[in-house]
Design a protein that fits this description.
The complex is a heterodimer of chains A (117) and B (230). With 117 residues, chain A is an all-alpha fold. Chain A contains 7 helices and no strands. Classes of the chains: A mainly alpha (117), B mainly alpha (230).
C-alpha cells in the first residue's frame, strides 16, 4: 500500500503539471511544473517527505532505463539526420564539454571566493 | 515469430530491461567508461531490432510504458533537491550565476560552430535547445520552427555523452566541488546527465536536478534572441 499511495501522489502531481502545461502558453513541460510543485509542496509541508520518498527514490534509480525507448527511436530519424550528421555530433559533443567547464568552473570560483572571505 | 513479437505487449519492455541488465553487468565486469549501461543497452536494443527486422513501432508499442514513467520520475528529482535545500540556499548566487553562464556558453558555442559548419537558419535553430531536457527542447524547437526530430536527436546525443563522460569532464576541467560538479552536468547534459550525477553523489544529483529546470527556462528565453543571429 505504501508504494501505491506514494505513486498516486506523484501521478496526481504529474496530472496537475499536465493541466498547467495546457493552460499556460509557454514551452515548459508538465515534468518541470510538477518538479516545482513537488519542491514547493515539500518546503511548505503540504507534501510530507515520507509520503513520496520510497517510490520517488525508486523512480529516480530506474531513470536511465526510461531513456532507452526514446533514444532507440533515433533510428527512425536517421534518414533526416544523415545530411548534417557530422555537424550534429561535433556540435553536440564540443558544446557539452565547453558548457560543463564554464558552468562548473564559474560556480566553483564563486563558492571558493565566498569561503575564503 | 516476428508477427507474434510485433503484437506482443511485453516484448519491448523485456528487451529494454534485458539490454540494460547486460549493460550493468558489462560495467561491473569491465571497468571501462565506454561500458556505460545506457549506451550498451541502446546499442544492444538497436542491434536486436535491426538484425531481427522488427519495426521500431512494434518495439515501442510496449516500450512506450517506460517513457510514460519519465514525467513522474523527473518530478521526483524535487526530492533530492529538497534534501539539499540548505546547501542550495547557502550557495544560491554561485548556482544561479553558474547556470546562467553555462546557458550563455551553450548558445554562443552553438552559434559559433554553426558559422563554422556554415549551417542555415533552420539547421542552426534546430540545435539551439540541445543541452536542455527533451520536453522543453521539443517545445522550443516547435516554437522556433526547427526540425523537431533532429532537435531530439541532438538532445539525446548530448545527454548520452554527459551520462557516459560527465565525471571524466569534471575531472579533466578541475571541477572538484560537489555543488559545481552537479551544476556542470545538469546544465550541459540535462536529465540524462543527472542520472549520472545522482550516482556520483547526493549533492551532485540534487544540484544537477535543479540545473535542468533553471537552465531549461533560461535557454527558452535566450534562444529566442539567439535565433535571430543566423
Amino acid at each position: 500500500m505504501k508504494y501505491l499511495s506514494q505513486f498516486g501522489i506523484i501521478l496526481a502531481i504529474s496530472f496537475v503539471g499536465e493541466v498547467l502545461n495546457r493552460i499556460i502558453p509557454l514551452p515548459i513541460p508538465a515534468s518541470i511544473y510538477g518538479m516545482v510543485l513537488l519542491f514547493v509542496g515539500l518546503l511548505s509541508g503540504v507534501v510530507k517527505l515520507s509520503s513520496v520518498k520510497d517510490t520517488g527514490k525508486f523512480l529516480i534509480e530506474i531513470m536511465p532505463l526510461l531513456f532507452i525507448p526514446a533514444t532507440v527511436g533515433l533510428i527512425e530519424s536517421w534518414a533526416l539526420m544523415q545530411d548534417f550528421l557530422v555537424a550534429i555530433i561535433v556540435i553536440s559533443l564540443v558544446s557539452t564539454v565547453v558548457v560543463a567547464a564554464a558552468a562548473g568552473r564559474i560556480t566553483q570560483f564563486i563558492i571558493n571566493r565566498k569561503t575564503k572571505k | 515469430m516476428k508477427e507474434f513479437v510485433s503484437n506482443s505487449m511485453f516484448f519491448g519492455v523485456t528487451l529494454s530491461l534485458a539490454a540494460y541488465a547486460v549493460g550493468i553487468l558489462a560495467k561491473r565486469r569491465l571497468k571501462l567508461f565506454i561500458f556505460n549501461p545506457l549506451l550498451v543497452a541502446i546499442a544492444l536494443t538497436i542491434t536486436a531490432l535491426l538484425v531481427s527486422g522488427i519495426e521500431y513501432d512494434a518495439y515501442n508499442s510496449s516500450a512506450k510504458y517506460l517513457s510514460y514513467l519519465l514525467t513522474p520520475a523527473t518530478i521526483c528529482l524535487a526530492i533530492p533537491l529538497y534534501e539539499q535545500y540548505k546547501l542550495l540556499k547557502k550557495n544560491f548566487t554561485a548556482i544561479i550565476v553558474g547556470i546562467a553562464s553555462g546557458v550563455l556558453t551553450s548558445l554562443t558555442t552553438i552559434f559559433l560552430m554553426a558559422l563554422l559548419f556554415k549551417l542555415g537558419h533552420y539547421e542552426y535553430i534546430t540545435l539551439l535547445p540541445k543541452s536542455i531536457t527533451t520536453a522543453i527542447g521539443i517545445g522550443l524547437s516547435q516554437e522556433l520552427e526547427g526540425y523537431v526530430s533532429i532537435t531530439v536527436a541532438s538532445i539525446m546525443i548530448t545527454g548520452l555523452f554527459g551520462n557516459i563522460a560527465g565525471d571524466i569532464i569534471c575531472k579533466v576541467c578541475g571541477i572538484k566541488h560537489p555543488v559545481a560538479r552537479g551544476i556542470a552536468i545538469g546544465t550541459s547534459a540535462h536529465v540524462m546527465g543527472t542520472a549520472k550525477a545522482l550516482q556520483m553523489g547526493q549533492i551532485e544529483g540534487a544540484m544537477s536536478s535543479l540545473s535542468i529546470a533553471v537552465a531549461g527556462c533560461m535557454t527558452v528565453a535566450g534562444a529566442i534572441l539567439y535565433s535571430t543571429f543566423i
